[in-house]
Amino acid sequence: MSIRTPLMAGNWKMNLNHLEAIAHTQKLAFALTDKDFDAVEVAVLVPFTDLRSVQTLVDGDKLKIKYGAQDISAHDSGAYTGEISGPMLAKLKCAYVAVGHSERRQYHAETDEVCNAKVKAAYRHGVTPILCVGEELPVRDAGEAVPHTLAQVEGGLKDIPAEQAESVVIAYEPVWAIGTGKVCGADDAQEVCGAIRGKLAELYSQELADKVRIQYGGSVKSGNVAEIMAKPDIDGALVGGAALDAEEFVKIIRFRD
Ligand code: PEP
């Protein structure tokens, strides 16, 4: 297996109640084989209310599917009504947590500072952050996609030591491609993902940069995933809408077939 095992992650967003989550995870478990898990890592990022159900299934049947949450509080406990903390996610054995998804940045005004605090909270409790970055359409049209995205990477990783940063997952998700059906061209995605790796080398070291997995996200489907995954700096996909269809998500996971 290569140094960077591809991470194929489904972001369910605010979909699937806990019963639907069980049925969906069972479908994935039934379809996926050891051969799939030898080739890639598979994860689902689920609503908080689904975590216990997914954990019970994964633990009980010793499934190789990883799971995690879509957000984390920057605080570990206290008077933060409605928030879910790192210790709570760790107790549910979450492997991953998305930080700074564009829908969080857009609808909940999450800044790079907030994302940075959430990345730190995740690491405090042994949950691997998937730091989501990417530009809006006017930024791309202005030719600023790379510097904009690199600033988000730098802001999100501020004061994160190398021992932690080497395990971070960065998801490059151009905002205009999320849920719109408009996929970013594979060459354009590679340009930004390559620049992200360059930024990691500058912030830390080339050795660390070579270890970090960089995903692409934005209207990934079985029909376009192979072209995207063929790019040298793209090490996985963060899949929204298409991950809600178990058969389609399995096809995406099997992008090499
Ligand atoms: C996402 O939610 O991170 C995403 C990329 O969504 P979609 O695949 O639907 O564009």
Topology:
Layout: E1 7-11, H1 18-31, H2 34-39, E2 41-45, H3 51-60, E3 66-69, H4 86-91, E4 96-99, H5 102-107, H6 112-124, E5 128-133, H7 137-141, H8 145-156, H9 162-165, E6 169-172, H10 186-203, H11 206-211, E7 213-217, H12 225-229, E8 236-239, H13 246-253
Parallel strand pairs: 1-2, 1-8, 2-3, 3-4, 4-5, 5-6, 6-7, 7-8
Helix pairs in contact: 1-3, 1-13, 6-8, 8-10
The protein binds phosphoenolpyruvate.
Classify the beta-strand content into a percent band. 5-15%
What name does CATH use for the topology? TIM Barrel
Oligomer category: single chain
The name of the CATH superfamily reads Aldolase class I
Shape: globular
Q: What's the CATH first level?
A: Alpha Beta
Helix fraction, binned, reads 40-55%
**Class of secondary structure makeup:** alpha/beta
Q: What does the model show?
A:
The chain is α/β, with parallel strands linked by helices. It has one domain (7-253): Aldolase class I (TIM Barrel), CATH 3.20.20. The protein has 13 helices and eight strands. It has helices at residues 18-31, 34-39, 51-60, 86-91, 102-107, 112-124, 137-141, 145-156, 162-165, 186-203, 206-211, 225-229, 246-253, and strands spanning 7-11, 41-45, 66-69, 96-99, 128-133, 169-172, 213-217, 236-239. An eight-stranded parallel beta barrel has the order 1-2-3-4-5-6-7-8, surrounded by five helices. Strand 7 (213-217), helix 12 (225-229) and strand 8 form a beta-alpha-beta unit. The longest helix has 18 residues, at 186-203. The radius of gyration is 17 Å and the shape is globular. 45% of the residues are buried. The structure holds phosphoenolpyruvate (PEP). Residues 11, 13, 173, 178-179, 217-220, 238-242 line the site of phosphoenolpyruvate. Phosphoenolpyruvate (PEP) binds at residues 11, 13, 173, 178-179, 217-220, 238-242. It catalyses: D-glyceraldehyde 3-phosphate = dihydroxyacetone phosphate. Pfam families: TIM. Its EC number is 5.3.1.1. Involved in the gluconeogenesis. Catalyzes stereospecifically the conversion of dihydroxyacetone phosphate (DHAP) to D-glyceraldehyde-3-phosphate (G3P).
